[in-house]
Amino acid sequence: MFWAGRDNLAEVQSLGVQCGQLGVPGDLELTDEFAAGWKSALEQAQFPVVTVFAAYNGENYADIPTVQRTVGFIPRDTRREREQRTYQVIDFAAAIGVGSFACHIGFVPEDTTHPDYIDVREMVRRVADHAAKNKQTFALETGQEPAHVLQHFLKDVDRANVGINFDPANMVLYGTGDPIEALTVLGPQVVSVHVKDGDWPNRNQPGALGTERPLGQGAVGISRFVAKLKEIGFRGPLNIEREAENQQERIADIRKAVAYLKSLA
Ligand code: MG
User: Fold this and answer.
1) Predicted structure pTM score
2) pLDDT, tens digit, for every residue of 80-119?
3) Which of 236, 230, 131 is closest to 192 using CA atoms?
4) CB 115 within 8 A of CB 74
């Protein structure tokens, strides 16, 4: 996954990847001219973008309580503005010819009678219906809730174009559960995947997130993950996600990740 406004398309291609997901930061202005620029750049580079991924202004991944307070559709104070922004990002994706939209919707409460659960479910339906008008899918990023909660939520949302962007490292980073078991449960709903690695949170620090790691060096078991994807019949791209603080280190890690994944093929 690469970010508009941060990553350079030529550099991304030089890493040996054949396609990717485009991340859109919350503060990026999405004008028609901007979309036209991206459309022609992608066409010239002959680089397919499989998903446009939205981040939102004010999101903060410092630790689990902060994620609960700031990420996705769950925070009440920003819910309406993020809904409008989501429609803009979906339409930007359509304008550049991308058939899938994804984001973190945040921590969905397990209690299905909770007002936030109900309001966010309705919002996911409206977002899905907006994407459906563009013939797009809407993929919810995994990790912040256990597989069975997400599975139940998807069933309750009840929209044919809603699925999952499965990120195995998030299941580890949030301490949610074994990612390979979760993939077995959620497999039929998986639209796209992130290939990312990480270590479990420190048990002595309540609320702490685990640590993201270069691919193959964390607790996910990437070879197991790739084998499981094959086993369940997933044939989509393996989108490498790496968010190291240092951009040079990040690019170097992605380059190594490409080689590592090729070695598993
Ligand atoms: Mg991810």
Assistant:
1) 0.97
2) 999 999 999 999 999 999 999 999 999 999 999 999 999 9
3) 236
4) no
